[in-house]
Structures are given as structure tokens and as C-alpha cells.
């Protein structure tokens, strides 16, 4: 694929943008130098240590010795073969289990991390490796590249490509890894580290490199990104074609399945098929699966009677299980069920989402989207709904990072759909109709009103279409009994003002986000806490008369939460006299541990 060039000269401040896709099995990098007055050109990183030829993707593998990184990418392949316990591979799948409501078919087969190694460390080591090689490539391929890199190093923008349903918790873990790898700092990560969904990056690449008459104003289409461990689906409406502008029409979907699942199913099939044979050996089966990955998987279409896996030498024979001269013969019936485990889930997801959105086309992308069998099965399924399947023939893993750079340049996607109902945990005034079941928990608060804890205050409903700059302004207040609160206590109380943010993926709107004991209710997801320091207000606070004449200190402020982009941001606004003050709110994600 040719490098991508922007249509107009860049007029902003000089910087470099580096897009990284750390996939389940493969990783790739694309980068671009944004220089004022020049056309922006993106480039794929194709020179990698341990590779004899130019390649645009490397294995997502990190090997360790005593907890210290030893090798990454292709250079770690030998360690994977000889010392698998010291190698982190398929580590992206460890992020999935508690994200998505469906069962994870890979969860029971996730390879463990090397002793003493955490997922943040693995990501940090992989990111550092990708960044170091990006720097070397940029300095070699760009005139005065070393000078340019040194000049803009502290303003380099990092764009990470992630599955559709990875939200603030997963972004937080990647942010910690990026800081640990010295890609960004804790102070500048908020604006130099960005995220883009896999399906969005895919569609941006496809629309730029493979435009067609099918895309017209008001055309509704879906992009289905079939990767190694996830299949992401997003639906868009074309708002305009010149320039291209897209709005997401509904929450994006993510199904935990993909090319790795097929390999796992083939492994199970071989274990069963070789029962009682001398070839029922773990190393031999690994060799067979590797041969399947190289030779059969990319071309399997379900039409041939026999497929052959070359795994051994000419002396390797066992006709009873189809092994002759170092190769095993597998029938269509042997292999088809392994693919169907994935295609059944993809087709089910498309059937549930696309007809209701009146989609006319499905753009199939992703590494596993190249599979002839996946293309055939999905095309037949969609035909029943009068939906046409489109494929991108030269699509590879590299296109995702290329799409991420294109998205940074062109900003095609103008609006996204909220993938859940978001809200805060509040203490509302007691309403006997809404809160009757917790009447016994009502308390009288300093403002003189009866209030109840643990209620869910909806900010954004699931499916709401949010523009890129959409902000939700939330009025809040805190109060203290003036007769019982000293100035020092007031300052301490204002130093940490917190609001918990929850996500609800159901279609209904629950009354509560916590139970009577303060624990998060089932189905409700605590995603982060917004925290701000308002202690500067303490000196200007006046005693006011509250409910029933009670004297209180009362602080009123607005929390502005920005939902329209690819990551949650928030600001705090308050008035001191007639002056409006504003500050960033610290977003503290609720991070689960693996």
C-alpha cells in the first residue's frame, strides 16, 4: 500500500504522530511528521530487528529473564519456542474478561505471564520497543530526522488503537504503561496520548484507499473488523461525501472471538483425532497448528475435500489418523466446525444489530476478515437482509494504524454513539414514590433536607449520538452545618470533592447504582471517580440560610463532562463573585487487576 498523503498543507504546530496497534498476535506502527506549510505523509514502519525482509507487522511477543525484558517481536520468537514460561504472548486477551458481558471463549486458555511480570509491564516494554524502532526509522528516513525528533520529542502524539468496548479502565492501564515506557509523562498524557477504536480506524483506511460510488449522502453502512481475539462492529451514516463526514448511528459492538479461537478449536480437534497415536504429542500438535496457520487457514473456503498440514519429515507416518510422509490430511468436516464457532457468533451479532439500523452495506476488514470462508458465510447471511458485503482485498493488520493516522489528519467521524448509559451516584432529596423501598435509610443532611444515598443520576442515555465536542454540564453542591464546622474542617472537606461515574448497559434506567450497604449493584459498572480540589473557595464562603432557617456553608459548582471523543474528559466550573473559574478534573479510573 502506498503511503497516505493529506490533501492540504498542514498549518498547525510542528509535531510527530505515532499510531500503535498492539494486537493479540501482531503489532504495527505508522507515523507522520506534521510540519507547518507541508503536506502530511504517513509512513508504515517496515524495518524491524530480527526480520530478514521488510514487514509491516511483528509478533506481539515479549520475553523476560528474571523479570527483566530480554527481547520483543521477532527477536523473541526463539524464546517462545524454547522457554515459553518466560514469554508474554497473546497478552491483549488478558484485558478482555471483565469488560464484555458475554463469556470469553479464550479465558480458560489464556497463557500466564512470566513470574513477577504484570500486564502493565508487558505493555510498557512492548510500547518502548515500538517507539525505539519508530525513532530509528524516522531518523534514517527523514532529512535531518535526528534533529527533528529531538526538537519535537516532548510533543509527540501517541495514538493507540483499541477494541470498541475498551473504555476508561483499559485506557487507564494503557496510559500507565505509556508513562512507564516514557512515551508520555503523567503531566502531558492527557493531551498527548489518544485512543481510536479498531473499527473506526479500519473504516477510515478503507474509505480513503478504496473509495467507491456505494458511499453516498445518508448511506448507512457497518464496518465489521475481524481480528485475532475480538470482532468489532460499528454502524455509520454518511452525513456528507465532500468532505467525508460520518455519524455513528448506534453503540458499537464487540464480540470476543476471532482468528485465535479458530486455532484453539483446531488444537482441540487434533488432540481428539490423534488419541492413541504416537503423534499425540504437544510439540507435534503445535507444529501442526502452526502449519495450519501458515498454509490452510488463509485459504480455507469450505469447498475442498482434503487439506494437508506439513509438520514433519518423510519418515513420519500413521495412516490410521491420516499422516503420511510428514503431513496430516484433514477433511472439510474436520476444519469447518472450528471456523463455524467464530462465524456463528459474527453472523448472530450482525443479525441482531444491522437490520434494525437499515444498513445497506457491510465493510468486512481485519486480519481474519481476509478469510475466504468468513467472507462466504457472512455474505450469504447478509443477503437474506438485502445487505451487500464489501471487502478490502489488500487489507492487512497495518491498515488499522494507517487508519489511525488518517483519522488524526481528517477527522472523518463527527459523532459517536454512547455505548452505555452514563451517570453519577448522587444523594437526592427523598421522593416517596421513587425511593419508597429505602425509606428506612433516609437521613437529614446539613442543608436541612431529607436525602437518600446510592441513587443513579443519568447524564447520557445509551445510544445517544454525541458530537465530538459534546459536553454535559452537571450542577452539584455540597453543604456543611455552619454551627458545627470550623474553617479548617471546611478546607479539608473541599480538598477532595468526588463524583463516582457509573455505566449501565441495559436498555432500562435503574433508580439505584448501589445497594443499601453501599456496594455497586449487579450490572452497574463503576468506571471512574471525578476528583477536584475546591479548597480555594473556603476563604470566600459565606454562611447562608438553608431549609427551615438552618445556617449552612454551601458550595455550588458545575462538572462539565466531555463524552463525544474517544476518551472521557472533565472540567470543573465555579463562580467567585462574578468571575467564572475553571480547572481540570482528575479522572481516577476504577482499575481491575489481572
TrEMBL record:
Entry-linked Gene3D superfamilies: 3.30.420.40, Actin, Chain A, domain 4
Organism field: Serendipita vermifera MAFF 305830
Stated name of the protein: Actin-like ATPase domain-containing protein
PANTHER family the UniProt entry points to: ALPHA KINASE/ELONGATION FACTOR 2 KINASE, HEAT SHOCK 70 KDA PROTEIN 12A
Superkingdom as given in the UniProt entry: Eukaryota
CDD domains hit by this protein: ASKHA_NBD_HSP70
InterPro entries, per database record: ATPase_NBD
